[in-house]
Specification:
- It is a single chain.
- This protein is of the alpha+beta class.
- It is 16% helix and 30% strand.
- The protein has a four-stranded antiparallel sheet with strand order 4-1-8-7, with helices on one face. A four-stranded antiparallel sheet has the order 3-2-5-6.
- Helix 2 runs antiparallel to helix 3 (195-209).
């Protein structure tokens, strides 16, 4: 089923993050996990801290697209900044900080389809402030919608009609054409006795094939 709405969000950058990897004397390698629907999360790449800041001021500038079906009034954009654990046996991904944003506030501010710039406060799971996150986002209807289904009449049925008419074994010729064709074929027998009787019999046979009776005239 096609989604009702979608959010295009660019996770731009963050600053003043706490290095939750300090116990290992390693750099912070943060990435963003973004969702509206808990079952449809997506994420950015990890920032490897290549600018010499230890990863506490990451820059992603990565665009994500989030489809959703809930009403805008009831929808919230959630973002977790998470440290990418380097050890293969370390399955724990420590949360650096989290932020959320009401989509209704975005639409009320800039309207549907327009881009809003936001600087969000990141918070630790305890609620303590933990850095800032810069994002750009727009709420819109999907750019592609499947066309409405077209219900066509069965094959061989003229538009507007669902009741096929009985066909003649003469390939659809009317009674007049059929009688005329037979009469023409018998034109060379005009001098033969009983011509009129034979023509009347053929006309009756054709009328029977076409389903006509005396009440049709």
């Amino acid at each position: 089923m096609a989604s009702r709405y979608e959010v295009e969000v660019t996770i731009a950058s963050a600053k003043d993050l706490k290095n939750v990897n300090w116990r290992s004397n390693g750099k912070l390698k943060p990435y963003a996990v973004v969702w509206i629907d808990q079952n449809r999360k997506c994420s950015t790449r990890a920032d490897e801290g290549g600018d010499g800041d230890g990863g506490v001021s990451p820059s992603w500038d990565e665009k994500l697209l989030l489809p959703f079906n809930s009403p805008i009034d009831d929808s919230t954009l959630y973002i977790d900044i998470v440290h990418s654990a380097a050890a293969a046996d370390d399955c724990t991904k420590p949360i650096v900080g989290s932020a959320k944003l009401s989509l209704r506030d975005v639409v009320d501010d800039v309207g549907m389809g327009s881009t809003a710039d936001r600087k969000l406060d990141l918070k630790r799971p305890s609620g303590r402030p933990q850095g800032k996150l810069v994002v750009r986002l727009s709420v819109r209807e999907p750019r592609y919608r499947a066309p409405e289904p077209y219900y066509a009449a069965p094959y061989g049925v003229p538009p507007g009609s669902y009741a096929p008419k009985k066909k003649s074994k003469f390939g659809g010729m009317g009674a007049g054409l059929a009688v005329g064709a037979v009469a023409g074929a018998l034109g060379g027998l005009a001098l033969a006795e009983g011509f009129d009787a034979m023509k009347n019999k053929v006309a009756d046979d054709v009328a029977d094939d076409l389903g006509y009776d005396g009440d049709d005239y």
